[in-house]
Amino acid sequence: MQTSIHNILKKYWGFDSFRDVQEDIIQSVLDGYDTLGLLPTGGGKSICFQVPALAKEGICVVVSPLIALMHDQVDNLKKRGINAVAITSSLTKREIDRLLDNCIYGKVKFLYVSPERLQQALFIERFKRMNVNLIAIDEAHCISQWGYDFRPPYLQIKELRQYHPTVPFLALTATATKDVVQDIQKQLEFKPQHRFFQKSFYRENLQYVVLNEENAYGAMLRVIKNVKGAGIVYVRSRRETVEIAQMLKNQGFSATFYHAGLTVEDRSEKQQKWKDNQINIIVSTNAFGMGIDKPDVRFVVNFGIPDSPEAYFQEAGRAGRDGRKAYAVLVIKPNNDELLEKRLALQFPSRETIKKVYYAICNYYRIALGTGEFFTAEIDIEQVAQKFGIKASTLVYALPFLERAGYVSLSESMGKKSTVKFLLQGQALYDFQVRHQEYDEFIRLLLRSYGGMFETPQKIKEKTLAKRIQQSVEKVKKKLRELHRLEVIEYNEATSLPQLTFLQPRVDVKHLRIPKEIYENRKTVAQKKMEAIIDYAYQEEECRNMKLLHYFNDQTAFPCGKCDVCLKKKKSTTNTKDVAQQIKEYIISNHPSANEVAEHFRPIYGKEQTLNTLEELINNGEIKINSKNSLEERK
């Protein structure tokens, strides 16, 4: 029996109505059509599959590329009283068995899985027996070789159709060009009577600005000083995250850094403090953002040119999701595009280099020729690079080509928390505590702090345990490792390392093949995207908003009137009398200092014209400086 979608929206989300094309997408899915929804970042994509899944009997299977994204959505659903689970690499085989059984026999409404999981026999056998009502594909642009984030495992999603042929597919993405839209539908084998809905990418509250200045640091600081509230600064390297965060702290800002090399615990803590407004600014590589739903971000600064318009649109779109005014600022230096050319060259190592990397990882894990199929292990990029005399960056850029060619699979481990399960129970555990008094108090602490440890592995936080017994985190970890060695508990320590799986037996490097479509073709696509983002950054003729929207084939684009290009055009057509009137009105309303006036109108009229006009107002007797050094109207 189908429940009213408006009742569901009100009951679980508290909204009275849907946004834009949400209701159209939901109704299309409920009518049984394969559907593609193109909604910009912050456009409410998740509601498009969550509401119709709740309206019908059965379970919705959600394919998602990032563990962090899965955990975030599962947590949000659970807070609303909706039963949802995610199968990730942090779970044991027994835990996965139990969760899949619950999806068949229990009351689970949402099952989140990675695209890699779809190829495993354990999943397929259980999937066949599930009462599936919808298959949702999040970040659907990952399926297209013309997209900016192609992931080969996405190509296997269509195989699910053979097990539940009448179940509709719902593909959702925030960034897709016309070619990518067509490719998504082709690769997912959409039925002829499918539906496509697109919300305009125009964000009325978002002001795009490009600052092309030699003193890029000064330009960035100017933005952060003038725009109050929470913000994100995206940089190009881990080193820059640390350096710029420290520079901001030295300037008196509340800031921290974030990148994929931090521990899971550190990343979670920094992310939570930023979401809770304990930290104002987070300086990050592109590792930060997916699944982060913080509506009150007032600015996103990109310090340096991103790789593509898609990447920039995603990152900039994290500002102003609450509908209030926000800024997307791209800070570049003259000739910054040369760095992008070098970056592109790094991202496409030679075929010989890719073969060298394959040889190194096979030897690192001691995999002999003809063996190693489905061997899985964590990979420490720095360690492998050091052992074989290869740059870490070379490994980072070569591994995706081996993945696309079907030799290996990489899955990030973000979100993998430490877990503990007791192996000893009852009398056996009591006897151990009596014999080993040095562990007695710590075992009691574990049992007091977490429930259910005898049945299933429970997530723990070593830092929390350390605070409770006033010891260092390392001492707590040492005790947990010792109890694991003594087979009292099963302790799985958190890790931020990605997992590497060999998908086929090791081949001789002379037989290793990197097909044209995943090397030359991908390089051509990357080159075009690089040229498009350079054009966006360095041109000063077309409205920034229109430039971006035209790239995504959004024909509703019109001059926004507030980006740096539009404001510059306004300035050239605005007479001095209009400028003076605007400045005077600002002074009457705000009683600012002369410097505050200059900074406020700098993006519109430039500092020099603003100060000249202000001087005229003072000389003409219209404005005066009061005893507090503030400006006010002379009456």
Give the C-level CATH assignment of the largest domain: Alpha Beta
Based on Cα principal axes, name the global outline. globular
Major beta sheet summary = 7 strands, parallel
Q: What's the mean pLDDT score?
A: 88
Percent helix, as a range, is 40-55%
**How many beta-strand elements?**
21
Structural class: alpha/beta
Number of DSSP helical runs: 25
CATH superfamily of the largest domain: P-loop containing nucleotide triphosphate hydrolases
What's this model, at a glance?
The protein has 635 residues and is of the alpha/beta class. It has 25 helices and 21 strands. Strand 20 (623-625) and strand 21 form a beta hairpin.
Structural commentary:
The chain is of the alpha/beta class. It folds into five domains: 194 residues, Rossmann fold, CATH 3.40.50; 160 residues, Rossmann fold; 88 residues, Winged helix-like DNA-binding domain superfamily/Winged helix DNA-binding domain (Arc Repressor Mutant, subunit A, Orthogonal Bundle), CATH 1.10.10.10; 75 residues; 60 residues, Arc Repressor Mutant, subunit A, CATH 1.10.10. It has 25 helices and 21 strands. The strands form five sheets. It has a seven-stranded parallel sheet, sandwiched between helices. The chain has a six-stranded parallel sheet with strand order 8-13-12-9-11-10, with helices on both faces. Strands 14-19-15 form a three-stranded antiparallel sheet. β10, α10 and β11 form a beta-alpha-beta unit. α5 runs parallel beside α6 and α24 crosses α25. The chain is globular, with a radius of gyration of 28 Å. The termini are far apart. The mean pLDDT is 88.
